[in-house]
Design goal:
This protein is mainly alpha-helical and 140 residues long. It has a domain at 31-124: Arc Repressor Mutant, subunit A. Helix content is 45%, strand content 10%.
Length: 140
């Protein structure tokens, strides 16, 4: 530079915040596989809608069915898949089965989704092309 003034490099948008930089350890292959399984199971709009509803508290199948607008067999199928993956658990009260979110990992995902929603709605974050199929992206 001719003026001798140094400028700071542009921040890396993917860089970790200073308070956690250097504190991250590699994620084990086992954990990556388990997290991938959970994210894949949650990777359907209907299941995400169910999780969002269950974040308010435990619910009966009929309540979940009414909330989603799906048939009872489809609702039960979605719940069964999430039960099998350890995302949900159940509690029985007589003949009534209540579904609820099973562990803190799922609660953290819900928290991340709520943070994302707020930041996108306020304009702080732009999703850009995330989640848009390539054929729908305009080539301007």
């Amino acid at each position: 530079m001719a003026s001798g003034i140094k400028t700071a490099p542009a921040p890396d948008p993917g860089a970790l915040p200073p308070e956690v930089a250097g504190t991250q350890s590699p994620i084990s292959a086992e954990l990556l596989a388990r997290v991938g399984t959970v994210l894949k199971a949650l990777g359907h709009p209907v299941r995400l809608k169910i999780i969002q509803y269950l974040a308010e508290g435990e619910r009966r199948v009929g309540d979940i069915q009414q909330y989603t607008g799906l048939s009872q067999p489809i609702t039960s199928q979605q719940l069964r898949l999430m039960l099998q993956k350890g995302i949900l658990d159940t509690r029985r009260d007589g003949n009534t089965v209540y579904y609820f979110i099973s562990n803190d990992f799922i609660w953290k995902i819900i928290d991340c989704m709520q943070t994302l929603s707020v930041k996108v709605m306020t304009g702080e974050w732009d999703l850009g092309r995330i989640g848009v199929p390539p054929e729908e992206v305009s080539n301007e």
